[in-house]
Amino acid sequence: MKHRGLSILCLCAVLSSFAGDNKVVLHGSIQSDILFPETDVTIGTETYKDKILTNTYGDLSLYSKYVDAGFRIEYLQHPLPGYEPDFKGWGVPNIYVKGKYKKLELTLGDFYEQFGSGFILRTYEDRSIGIDNSIRGARIATRGLKGMKYTLLGGVQRRFWDWSLRSQVYGGDAEFSLDDLFGKIGGKDYAWTFGASYVLKHEKDEDVIVPGTNYKLNLPHFVSAFDLRSQFAKNGFTVLGEYAWKSADPSYDNHYTYAHGDALMLSGSYSRSGLSVFLQAKRSENMSFRSRRSQQLSSAFINNMPPFAYQHTYALASIYPYATQAAPGEWAFTGSFAYKFKRKTALGGKYGTSIKLNASYIRGIKRDDPPLFNDSQFGTDGGRTHFFGFGQCYYQDFNVQLEKRVLRDLNLNFTYVNQLYNQTILEGHGGNVRANIFILEGKYNISKKVTARAELQYLTTKQDQKDWCYGLIEVSVLPYLMFSVSDMWNNGDTKIHYYMGAVTANYKANRLMLGYGRTRAGYNCAGGVCRYVPAFRGFQISYNYNF
Fold it and tell me: Are residues 229 and 194 in contact, defined by beta-carbon separation less than 8 angstroms?
């Protein structure tokens, strides 16, 4: 980190030399989330020696005809609650220069990439859960041939503030569009693509000893992963099939076993005016793929197995979120159906009615226990699995959403959610939690500039902390202000109130939020990856600026 200033000066020099007389466009942003933590014995808050906690980011990017460049400054020296210890730090962790000429792009520095659905490679940033697994190295991409796209890359992966050369990641991806290559055969309108990807991880050896012995595992220095996919679309129908395979990759996640990994996904969808249907199935096994085999944190993943659980945004429906079980594997099914009844019909009424049905069902994979060596799976093949065999249920979610405009200025949404959450598998304790959740949301336009919105939610269960209820009132004064008050109350075991009040102001490219209240302990999830957030109370400030 001692070369932060030098890196930025080099970036500016590159821009000056390549941009020339071409128009240069500057874009940037500032994001700062601040908490003044307070001790609260009732909710069991941690005691912080720092009086102010903040996650602050600054991005700056410049674009021209032939060269793009940018960098990001992060100040995480006193991070918000719930982030891993190594998350702490500050500096310039992301800096890049991209050269562009006709259909060719060359990137040097830090970059993000995804091959296909991300089964074997997905690097991305998600600040809400503390993930930034960018690759520092080089990437070349071309769109030079009709109907074809190619990408080659290589480098080292970021792990918080470390870019150790202990392991490297290399990869290539190719996509072919048949309709672009051969035109619309017979005049038929369709889109048909094929894709193939390859990723290679090289990792230096390390001492992993079989428990209770002096035997050291012979770990592979190279791990390969392949991905094949095809998607066909025509007249509102879309079908996607994708298969990924990974060679033996002993790691902390799979108890240092030597079985290969694979994933198979099939999905189909259909949409037309007022109607949409989506179905998807996935079987994955031993697909935890990290740049460092001994790591246990989400930031070390090379890939990302997409979640098949419905992503709820309502507070109580999000108490029991699902985290993808990449290492042991899972059978996962999801589907959705949406239909809008037309206006001035029996079910549509005066303004029309929309209904949505969503279902997710995820189970483990049936497996025969492997023969243990010294009461350990270390060095074994991981046992035998049954392709169509199902293990215990990990998660299921069925929800129905009804949206109805009952008056010209009043909209109502009703949601019912039925969930089963295997707390033992997902959190390590508790057994199965079965919950029913009822949500009513109303939005009323008081005037052209003033809108009021309210939520009433109730979760009932006989397990965990029993029942919860939630209420929210929000008033928006366009285009500048929004006021909100809410309370999440456990009326089951703890009887604790998690209250919150906030005011948000928007002016041009500036957004400022001031809030005060309690936040319950729980899991914050995005994309099937979760971060545990401890309970906290305090005054909160959030500021965003984009230019």
Answer: yes
Q: For the range 137-145, what are the long-range contacts, defined as Cβ-Cβ under 8 Å and sequence gap of 24 or more? A: 137/108, 137/168, 138/106, 138/107, 138/108, 139/105, 139/106, 139/107, 139/111, 139/113, 140/104, 140/105, 140/106, 140/107, 141/104, 141/105, 141/107, 142/103, 142/104, 142/105, 143/103, 144/102, 144/103, 144/104
- Whether 6 shows a pLDDT value over 50: the answer reads no
Handedness of CA 3, 9, 11, 17 (dihedral sign): negative
The predicted structure's pLDDT at residue 184: 60
Show the 3-state SS of 345-372: ECCCECCCEEEEEEEEEEEEEEEECCCC
CA–CA gap between residue 34 and residue 79 (Å, rounded): 9
Task: Give the length of the chain.
Answer: 547
For the residues 150-164, what does the mean pLDDT come to? 93
411: left (phi over 0), alpha (psi -120 to 50) or beta: beta
CB-based burial, 278-306: b 16+ in 10 Å, e otherwise: bebbbbbbbbbbbbbbeeebbbbbbbbbb
Closest Cα partner for 515 from 498, 502, 530? 502
Closest by alpha carbon to 331, among 382, 418, 420, 263? 263
* 24 Cβ contact list (under 8 Å, min separation 6): 15, 62, 63, 64
Average pLDDT, stretch 163-176? 92
Span 171-181, average pLDDT: 88
pLDDT per residue as tens digits for the range 30-55:
999 999 999 999 999 988 889 999 99
Q: Is 424 helix (H, G, I), strand (E, B) or coil?
A: helix
Q: Tell how far CA 460 is from the center of its chain.
A: 28
Of the chain, the percentage scoring pLDDT greater than 90 comes to 71
8 A C-beta contact, residue 243 and residue 260: no
Give the bridge partners for 64, in sequence order: none
The tens digit of pLDDT for each residue in 182-193 reads 766 545 678 899
Chain centroid, CA 449 distance in Å: 34
Q: Give dist(CA 529, CA 326) in Å, integer.
A: 10
Q: How far apart are the first and last CA of the chain?
A: 27
Q: Look at the alpha carbons of 110, 129, 245, 239 in this order and tell me if their dihedral is positive or negative.
A: negative
Residue 146 DSSP SS3: coil
